[in-house]
Design a protein that fits this description.
The protein has twelve helices and no strands. The protein is mostly helical. Helix 1 runs parallel beside helix 4, helix 4 runs antiparallel to helix 9 and helix 5 runs parallel beside helix 7.
Length: about 300
């Protein structure tokens, strides 16, 4: 594989991880502060954790942690950073006092479909070859999110009396997140079970945990990517077991692997959280606060920060 191809492939992971954080702090942070925060966080959190996981000299790699396509690197990393940034920044005006509906459900549907197709590149591509591992990862990236979408819809029906399109799409993303670290290690049935578990757990995180703790994660980055990443990273230690149809190799020890997975998850949470907190303090000092004014937030950042509107 040409080195530049690998560089471009890794670049996509770096871009999407930084972009995910924006979902947790949407609609209320100064544009310059956002850019500075991402530069600091990317340098001191994304790059070290990516090295820990995928470099032969990395901490998690040498521990034997399994992360096929970025459960810790992308999803736990960004989810925790989004949570910390959202807490430091504070909630949007009117949060938990008035309804803040999704902007455009049709766009959510289109975006989820594009994301699902693009995810095949992340997961199957992480085999770095056109082989059986890539094929299994590809299939798992179909079945796990399908199971998660159905699980979320069923959970909504049971707990809220209806299954929604928004919930179905959210469940699909939760399943994509959860299968990412396990994509090349899990058998097909294991992927289905892991996806279903992630659908139910992420629904709980979004519907119950977030209101309970009162943090304003605008687009549920922590609830879906952070929690889904934790479920997937730890669950990888289970579904990779050859006795359950996984591809963990000879002499695989589920108990030992679970300990390693939990340790890796813990380090990733602490590392990303600390870096995100320090980065927020730095940008608040540099920009005289990270939040836009109340009038700018009410007008909308498209207009107040960028002088444009999405629609005329």
């Amino acid at each position: 594989m040409p080195e530049l191809v690998f560089i471009c492939f890794q670049l996509t992971f770096a871009c999407i991880t930084s972009t995910l954080i924006i979902g947790g702090i949407a609609e209320r942070m100064k544009f310059g502060a956002v850019m500075a925060f991402l530069a600091i966080w990317f340098t001191f959190s994304y790059l070290p954790i990516a090295h820990m996981v995928w470099s032969g000299a990395g901490l998690f790699f040498n521990m034997g942690a399994l992360d096929f396509a970025g459960g810790t690197v992308v999803h736990i990393n960004s989810g925790v950073a989004a949570l910390v940034a959202a807490i430091v920044l504070g909630p949007r005006i009117g949060y938990m006092k008035e309804p803040i509906a999704p902007h455009n459900l049709v766009f959510v549907f289109i975006g989820a479909c594009l994301l699902w197709v693009g995810w095949f590149g992340f997961n199957a591509g992480s085999a770095l070859a056109a082989n059986g591992t890539a094929a299994q990862a590809f299939l798992n990236t179909i079945t796990a999110p399908a199971a998660a979408a159905i699980a979320w819809a069923v959970g909504e029906k049971i707990t809220r009396g209806h299954a929604s399109a928004l919930g179905f799409f959210s469940g699909a993303v939760a399943g994509l997140v959860a299968i990412t670290p396990a994509a090349g290690f899990s058998g097909t049935f294991g992927a289905i079970v892991l996806g279903a578990v992630a659908g139910f757990v992420c629904l709980w995180a979004v519907v119950t945990l977030k209101p309970m703790l009162k943090y304003d994660d605008s687009l549920d980055v922590f609830g879906i990517h952070g929690i889904g990443g934790i479920v997937g990273a730890i669950g990888t230690g289970i579904v990779a077991d050859p006795s359950l149809g996984g591809f963990g190799g000879e002499g695989y020890s589920m108990g030992g692997q679970l300990v390693i997975q939990v340790l890796a998850v813990g380090v990733a949470i602490v590392w990303s959280g600390v870096v995100a907190f320090i980065a927020m303090l730095i940008v608040k000092a540099i920009f005289g606060g990270a939040r836009v004014s109340e009038s700018a937030e009410s007008d909308g950042l498209d207009l107040s920060s960028h002088g444009e509107r999405a629609y005329n």
